[in-house]
Amino acid sequence: MATATESGSAPPVDGEVRQRGRPRGSGRGRGRGRGRGRERSQSARRSKRPRKPRPWRSASPPALEPLVPLPPGTEVEVRIDDDGFHGTWFEATVLDFAPARGYRNPARYTVKYVHLLADDEGALSEPFAPSQIRPRPPPLSSPPRFQLHDIVEAFHNEGWWSGIVVSAPDATGAGVTVSFPITREVIEFPSSLVRPRRDYVAGDWIPSRAAMVLRPNRAVKVYEVGEKVEVLRNRDVYGNSWFPATVRVVIDDLSYVVEYFDLEEGKGGSEKATEYLHWWFIRPAVEHSPSKREFQLRPGAAVEAYCDGAWSLGVVTRVVGEDEYEVGIIGKKTRLLVTKVVELLKPQYIWNGNQWRITTAKS
Hints:
Blueprint: H1 4-7, E1 18-19, H2 27-44, E2 56-58, E3 75-80, E4 88-98, E5 108-117, E6 123-128, E7 133-135, E8 151-156, E9 159-167, E10 176-179, E11 186-189, E12 194-196, E13 198-201, E14 204-207, E15 214-216, E16 228-235, E17 239-252, E18 255-264, E19 272-278, E20 282-284, E21 302-307, E22 310-321, E23 324-330, E24 335-341, E25 345-347, E26 349-351, E27 356-358
């Protein structure tokens, strides 16, 4: 699952839902598993130099105490926090456990994946810290009855990915539609491939109160219902653009359901479009008043230009006339030049989750 910034695609706001492919065990599913396996096995063969620490920590408590080893053959799930995986759980089997031998040699499990394969099509095995391993969740006592905005995990790309329900099954027997806040995908799954998200705490399984598995080490702003915000989307013509929206539902302190001001559901629909998003794609709706030392509207200035309902990122290329400027905007496929009056331009700022930083002028 590629993130929106990786794929460069805008999220769907027209109500179109992508269907889940064949269920696990099919040839198509195994193909996706092999792709993931290659990606993981290649990273496992890289140099053993220490990795740069990631600015993330897990939202869930440690799945297992480090000193409680599981015997070989135990069926488990392992959490992958690498880029592109976002704390997704993958089914595996314990092969071995190595206890800690000093600070430089912490305790490690070796596991074999159930669905992911190595480059040679054989079983893919990798080491994991005890905090990234948990037993497989036990079956539920009765089939779940999913409700709107329930926090769930859906079996997709051979792992259990965290999201929320945006459309629950009805009498027609339709599947469960799940939205993923980081990849910005909306996919319909058979009910059998969706489960309530639960955390394993001190030997018990409890309903999870957070959809986001990984958390930033720094504090980020928590939005409230009804708060005015702006949402980043990538448009074909105008590239990265900030759309006005309102927070409608707080799922947890890192993800939200927002309602767009001017975008509508479906073609010719009357309801405002909504989207479930990670905080990465949201910023407060504020007006900045930088000093002349910080910002001057002249060629090379980094600006945001109001284009078709949203603020698009650009750079002033030249002065056209009095209070009128030409701005270069990078779209998905080409660079666009637009002419804007000063009222439709504002300084370009970067929001890191808790503070603003003005973008420096381009030389």
